[in-house]
Amino acid sequence: MTKGTATELYQALWNSADVLRSKMDASEYKNYLLGLIFYKYLSDTMLVHSSEMLEEKTENLDEALDMYREAYADDEFSEEFQSALVYEMSYRIKPELTFSALMEEINNHTFQREHLQQGLRDIEQSSNVFEDLFEDIDLNSKKLGATPQKQNDTISQVMRALDNLNLANYDGDALGDAYEYLIGQFAEDSGKKAGEFYTPSQVSTLMTRIALANKEDKKGLTVYDPTMGSGSLLLNASKYSNEASTIRYFGQELNTSTYNLARMNMFLHNVDPENQTLRNGDTLDADWPQDEPTNFDAVLMNPPYSAKWSASKGFLDDPRFASYGVLPPKSKADFAFLLHGYFHLKNDGKMAIVLPHGVLFRGAAEGKIRKALLEQGAIDTVIGLPANIFFNTSIPTTVVILKKNRDSRDVLFIDASNEFTKVKNQNKLEEKHLDKIYETYLKREDIEKYAHVATYEEIEENDFNLNIPRYVDTFEEAEPIDVVALKDEMKQTDQEIESVSKELLAMVDDLEVTDDTKDIIDALKEVLG
């Protein structure tokens, strides 16, 4: 079992997807691969820890399995040992169902996917923490193979590709980052479906840095993402906190598969179960959370753009929307997501949300909501991002920063639409681009053709339209034309044309005139004459 560099770990995990890549879409095979990686992580970790409990710690998984089998079979010792193991690990995998034992079956050609299914089921039933965690792994799916034997073979091949790694050897940052890398790769392969589970890391970084500015040293920081996807945006908070182990994460996700992905992601980043409160549910349909805490230090959101929602009249009495007097339109839930997040923001908190540019200027109900937010001073900053930085859409997007209890109603506009590096078919925000945006946010000063602090009166004059070009003029005047140089250039071009024409005419005169070529030669002489 090897422990290589982070790059080797990333590559080994990604290569294991080759087995499934030809059989199904990336949005589907990610569930199998990420689930199997997590199962191996739990199995490897349990084996190494059990050897430590037996006071013969080893990182050799085969040796650890032998010790685990022996302890498990000892009638006098087994019950006490198992209870202690479950207490410390929160789960238990029988010796014959560990990843290492299943690999022995695979190598002996006796493996049956039902054994793996039982191992997954045992983990789910061991604790509420793992309940229904693997429900998206359908080991009987025809996409794995047309017959039970072919399905066995496919799963065996994936497990073989992972077998050379001891995932217990990697700390939470290394393995968690590798998991994030895989999710990013799946997003790149998934195209439009990527928006369901992934926010590009550079956008996550920007939003998190801004949301956590001046809160880096706060203990017990609470972070909330009501459209959390795979949890990557939430987990990014740990990178910008000096008290990362005390962060409490709150997240909700509608898609069950993606919700389970987020749960695994939390474990692989070593987030204590007590510090994570995640829920599978519809954020707009029913407000959550309603039990303490209900407001958070930081709210981070990348909701589905211009999604449909019910917008039923009953929501006018919902405290999230009631004070605005109108509801966002059924065809565009952008402001519904924004108002939900803002409702759950602490008075001294900060919210960062990614939205399409339409929220900045669309009228009717959205215009009324935008005006009300501006009158409150809720909208702190509007950042225009480049087009084509998300996997699921090529449109340019905006990050809106919101705060409560501000002393001013001005708005900082940053036009970062041209701050990117082209990489293949995507535009990427590099560290230098992120630093420029972040430093501009902190300084809150005008920068020609890049940033402007607009007063409330200025915004009011624009009828509360927040379209960025109204406030940041990025127009570049064309360089003055040197008329004399242009005249000389045209004269020289005319002389070159005349010279070439004479040469061609001389060549035409040398052509032999026949009945077939006479008309062509005459036409050429007329053009060149």
TrEMBL record:
Span of domain N6 adenine-specific DNA methyltransferase N-terminal: 11-161
Molecular functions per Gene Ontology: DNA binding; N-methyltransferase activity; site-specific DNA-methyltransferase (adenine-specific) activity
Any single biological process term in GO: methylation
Enzymatic class: transferase
EC number(s) reported in the record: 2.1.1.72
Methyltransferase is among the record's keywords: yes
InterPro entries: D12N6_MeTrfase_N, DNA_Adenine_Mtase, DNA_methylase_A-5, DNA_methylase_N6_adenine_CS, Restrct_endonuc_T1M, SAM-dependent_MTases_sf, T1MK-like_N_sf
Catalytically driven reaction(s): a 2'-deoxyadenosine in DNA + S-adenosyl-L-methionine = an N(6)-methyl-2'-deoxyadenosine in DNA + S-adenosyl-L-homocysteine + H(+)
Keyword Transferase among record annotations: yes
DNA methylase adenine-specific domain sequence ranges: 172-479
Keywords: Methyltransferase, Restriction system, S-adenosyl-L-methionine, Transferase
Family statement drawn from the similarity comment of this UniProt entry: Belongs to the N(4)/N(6)-methyltransferase family.
Protein name (database record): site-specific DNA-methyltransferase (adenine-specific)
Species this chain originates from: Pisciglobus halotolerans
